[in-house]
């Protein structure tokens, strides 16, 4: 028996669904990112954590695993796993925090800075090429603004949810 989809889906075609379109674009972008980072032997999550660490270290004296997880919006398990791999590659150091013995202070090593610099150049080149589909600068700017709106909106929803749970 065939499933009748007429009343099931909001859109006539999956290609009309913004969610499905976002999924497709994300998949294409993620492949582009992974290909660019492969030469540095980094995953996208590892790059994200390294770049977040570099940024947070320039603002804060001590950066913890929780700080990185929150900044990169990665779950705690993925963050922990990626940081262990980065430490194994000698790109970061994980030491006991001076202020909280239960947490680890994370720092980037000179080798980590070197790899991050190379990876950033490769990723920037790949992103410029990928987003060249939005050839006019104003289109890319608008696209970025729309993404920020979605992020801000979902952040505000999460904040309201967290407040009501307390």
Strand content: 5-15%
Q: Main beta sheet, described?
A: 3 strands, antiparallel
Look up the CATH topology.
Arc Repressor Mutant, subunit A
Number of strands: 3
Rg calc: 20 Å
Based on the coordinates given, report the CATH architecture. Answer: Orthogonal Bundle
- Figure out the total of helices: 6
Decide which structural class fits the backbone: mainly alpha
Terminus-to-terminus distance: 48 Å
Instruction: Please give the domain count.
Output: 1
In spatial order, strands of the major sheet run 1-3-2
Query: Could you state the CATH homologous superfamily?
Result: Winged helix-like DNA-binding domain superfamily/Winged helix DNA-binding domain
Approximate helicity band? 55-70%
Low-confidence stretches: none
Give the C-level CATH assignment: Mainly Alpha
Calculate the mean pLDDT score and round it: 87
Assign an overall shape: globular
């Amino acid at each position: 028996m065939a499933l009748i989809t007429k009343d099931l889906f909001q859109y006539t075609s999956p290609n009309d669904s913004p969610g499905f379109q976002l999924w497709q674009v994300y998949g294409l972008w993620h492949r582009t990112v992974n290909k660019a980072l492969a030469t540095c032997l980094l995953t996208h999550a590892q790059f994200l954590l390294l770049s977040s660490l570099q940024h947070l270290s320039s603002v804060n004296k001590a950066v913890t695993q929780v700080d990185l997880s929150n900044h990169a919006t990665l779950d705690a398990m993925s963050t922990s796993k990626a940081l262990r791999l980065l430490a194994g590659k000698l790109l970061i150091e994980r030491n006991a925090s001076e202020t909280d013995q239960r947490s680890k202070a994370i720092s980037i090593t000179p080798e980590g800075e070197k790899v991050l610099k190379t990876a950033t150049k490769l990723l920037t080149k790949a992103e410029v090429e990928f987003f060249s589909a939005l050839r006019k600068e104003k289109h890319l700017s608008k696209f970025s603004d729309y993404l920020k709106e979605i992020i801000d909106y979902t952040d505000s929803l999460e904040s309201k949810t967290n407040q009501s749970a307390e």
